[in-house]
Write a structure and sequence with these properties.
By secondary structure, the protein is mainly alpha-helical. Helices cover about 65% and strands about 0% of the residues. The structure holds iron/sulfur cluster (2 copies).
Length: about 190
């Protein structure tokens, strides 16, 4: 992980390592793949719930809206990438269109519950709804695995290297997994 405000200490006045380690632009091809996998997972998940368990669909839709609004308020407005085309689906820009930044605030229990609850509904409800239709079940699982794999190898892999927000390191389970999968080169 990048050390916050790290400088090389040589006394020449340059930013040293901090400058080299500035968060570089994400690869556009990788981002296209990541976004496509997210759209596939969400679109197929919503379709599967609506088709197999129409009564569950309002809950799935509420989770989707929560994730794209409340979670952005509780998390993105307190993130170092607020307002930026961040690695996580460029959502730092989306958050800035909805809410002002909340500098000085960090991820709290409300953010953890909102994120965990909405993601759980978006991921588990389609899986439950498709039980009994193996074709739909495995199509959704394929979409979910592809999306999660893209997320960990594209966003989280770079997050553990470049992020400085302590809450990511301290609370995010994907951060811990990415550290195991992509340990720093020595
Ligand atoms: S890195 Fe994550 S929390 Fe930060 S702005 Fe982007 S989507 Fe939001
Ligand atoms: S490691 Fe956690 S905080 Fe960082 S991009 Fe992945 S999910 Fe987001």
């Amino acid at each position: 992980m990048r050390t916050p405000d790290a400088v090389c200490g040589c006394g020449c006045g340059c930013a040293g390592e901090a400058e080299q380690d500035d968060w570089p632009e994400p690869d556009k091809g990788a981002m296209r793949f990541l976004i496509a996998s997210g759209v596939w997972m969400l679109a197929y998940g919503g379709y599967a719930v609506a088709r197999r368990r129409p009564r569950w669909f309002p809950l799935w839709l509420a989770a989707l809206v929560t994730w794209f609004t409340l979670c952005k308020y509780l998390i993105c407005t307190r993130c170092e990438n607020y307002g930026k085309a961040c690695d996580f689906y460029y959502l730092g820009k989306w958050a800035a269109r909805l809410f002002p930044a909340q500098p000085g605030r960090s991820l709290d229990t409300a953010g953890i519950i909102a994120e965990g609850g909405s993601v759980a509904v978006l991921q588990f409800l389609p899986a439950l709804a498709t039980l009994g239709s193996w074709r739909m079940f495995f199509t959704f699982i394929a979409a979910l695995v592809t999306n999660q794999g893209a997320q960990i190898s594209i966003c989280c892999r770079r997050c553990i290297r470049y992020s400085t927000d302590p809450w990511k390191r301290e609370t995010c389970p994907s951060y811990k997994l990415a550290e195991k999968l992509f340990p720093p080169k020595v």
